[in-house]
From TrEMBL:
Keywords: Signal
Signal sequence residues: 1-24
Protein name: Tetratricopeptide repeat-containing protein
Species of the source: Massilia yuzhufengensis
Top-rank lineage group of the source organism: Bacteria
Length: 216
């Protein structure tokens, strides 16, 4: 279970910010969450991430409560909460990923295309990384459904391709996984997201190395 929790949201999925689509206040809050999440995820020691994500989760909760109609903040609240769950580990983390799922569903009800399909990709990631019933709500069929919806909205994005590649890798489809991961590596850079982009590319490259090792 601890291994699952650490692996949960290896990405914890990074999202995309179309600044013109949100109110000024929520756009600034989303940008702040994006930057702090990336710094914790990719630049902080693993031993300190649980405490740092817990602090950021509390901040994200307050931001989402101030603007309950902001689909962008709901997505990032879910991302941070899931990342905290992954760093925390254990069965106690499941309540946080369950709440993250509800936040993503709320975001989709407000705006199905929020953050270039990030809510779809995030939901898909949860469904294939969370354990199945009776422990959790994991469901491969739903995972594939939401991951493909995320790709339909943002076919060239780094995150939808990375997570679809990761999903296919876990299912043993190494050819499909390789195609998706190489597409993730070729994705255009996101303004203001260098830390997240570099971290995601490193994760994609590591998965490609695992695929190559399995083929030897």
């Amino acid at each position: 279970m601890k291994q699952f929790a650490r692996a949960l949201w290896t990405a914890a999925f990074a999202a995309f910010l179309p600044f013109g689509a949100a109110h000024a206040g929520s756009a600034e809050d989303v940008a702040r969450l994006q930057q702090e999440w990336a710094q914790i995820k990719y630049q902080s020691p693993a031993a300190s991430q649980e405490q740092q994500f817990e602090r950021l989760r509390a901040q994200a909760e307050q931001m989402a409560a101030r603007e309950p109609g902001s689909a962008e903040l709901l997505v990032w609240y879910a991302i941070v909460e899931s990342s905290y769950a992954g760093a925390r580990g254990g069965l106690g983390a499941l309540k946080y990923v369950e709440h993250a799922r509800k936040s993503l569903e709320q975001a989709l009800a407000i705006d199905p295309r929020v953050l270039d399909g990030s809510a779809y990709t995030s939901l898909g990631s949860l469904y294939y990384q969370v354990p199945r019933w009776p422990i959790g709500f994991g469901n491969d069929q739903k995972a594939q459904e939401f991951l493909k919806k995320g790709l339909a909205v943002n076919p060239d994005g780094i995150d939808p391709n990375f997570f679809y590649g990761d999903y296919l890798f876990r299912k043993g489809d190494y050819d499909g996984a390789e195609r998706a991961l190489r597409k993730a590596l070729q994705a255009p850079a996101r303004p203001g997201r260098k830390i997240a982009d570099d971290g995601r590319r490193a994760e994609a490259a590591a998965l490609l190395e695992q695929i190559a090792a399995k083929r030897r």
